[in-house]
Amino acid sequence: MQERLLELQEEALQKVTAASELKELNEVRVAYLGKKGPITEVLRGMGKLSAEERPKIGALANEVREAIATEIEQKQKALETAAVNAKLATETIDVTLPGRPVNKGNLHPLTRVVEEIEDLFIGMGYTVAEGPEVESDYYNFEALNLPKSHPARDMQDSFYITEEILMRTHTSPVQARTMKKHKGQGPVKIICPGKVYRRDNDDATHSHQFQQIEGLVIDENISMSDLKGTLDVFAKKVFGQDREIRLRPSFFPFTEPSVEVDISCKICGGKGCSVCKQTGWIEVLGAGIVHPNVLEMAGFDSKKYSGFAFGMGVERIAMLKYGVDDIRHFYTNDVRFLKQFNHHEA
């Protein structure tokens, strides 16, 4: 029995040495150290041995098992190391290759325009005010001198949710809400950027959703000259120092007097071309002196306070500033279009 155990050890160690794969090694482990292996078979015959021989054979069996297990463990480590080295050799990374360029995002042209205008007016002492896009009829119309029967409501075909709730058609309700918060005490000096909604047919110059920036100043002794000076600074900052402005009489229910504001054409320098329709001027925004009724409804004494307001479409400003001929380009997210603004400084 002793000889048989030593034979099994020699036989197992030879097979361990010859194993070239982890699978073969595991088969050797199961074959010699498993419950049905030859070593176990030998030990089952220990009952025939004398009491003196049994401990010796038991100890020898344990030594044989341990020797085989130790050899298998060492061989397993060697095979695993060889497998890792072989894998590394086949998956070598060439660190000298140039890296793949990562595309960087950039500001949308409308965002550039909004931030540029915000920075300008914040530098002039204005604060940025915001309000809800789902608005009440009162703040959207009535508080701005547009009662329910007013014909000017037809100019703004609106998205109504109920008879009294609608998607705001301009950012003017933010002005009305801000005036209410001031409870008749000036000064008020704000700009109101945001999205607005109108039931318009989308084409090259119209969209059912667009962005506006409106401004409002209320204080004592505010006049049309203050408005003109402010808009002159705006035009020169956004469109260039050589731009000039002109004011034309117009009508808005919430301002009196009201004006349309034009800037001199950048293309022809005011001489007349196809862009400005041979006039030398391009319309950019509407403005005026705040109507006394609007002041009174917000709690301001119209005899003590006066103010001016202006409103512009962000898309129109961007189209003029960057020479874009179709408003829909801003919303189709065509990367080829947006990449053109990577190097524009807002």
Automatic annotation (TrEMBL):
Keywords: Aminoacyl-tRNA synthetase, ATP-binding, Cytoplasm, Ligase, Magnesium, Metal-binding, Nucleotide-binding, Protein biosynthesis. It comes from Peribacillus muralis. It catalyses: tRNA(Phe) + L-phenylalanine + ATP = L-phenylalanyl-tRNA(Phe) + AMP + diphosphate + H(+). This is Phenylalanine--tRNA ligase alpha subunit. The lineage of its organism: Bacteria, Bacillati, Bacillota, Bacilli, Bacillales. It is an enzyme of class 6 (ligase). Its cofactor is Mg(2+). InterPro entries: aa-tRNA-synth_II, aa-tRNA-synth_II/BPL/LPL, Phe-tRNA-synth_IIc_asu, Phe-tRNA_ligase_II_N, Phe_tRNA_ligase_alpha1_bac, Phenylalanyl-tRNA_Synthase, tRNA-bd_arm. Mg(2+) binds at E256. It is found in: Cytoplasm. Tetramer of two alpha and two beta subunits. Its EC number is 6.1.1.20. PANTHER family: PHENYLALANINE--TRNA LIGASE, MITOCHONDRIAL, PHENYLALANYL-TRNA SYNTHETASE. Binds 2 magnesium ions per tetramer. Its main location: cytoplasm. Residues 111-340 form the Aminoacyl-transfer RNA synthetases class-II family profile domain. GO terms for molecular function: ATP binding; catalytic activity, acting on a protein; magnesium ion binding; phenylalanine-tRNA ligase activity; transferase activity; tRNA binding.
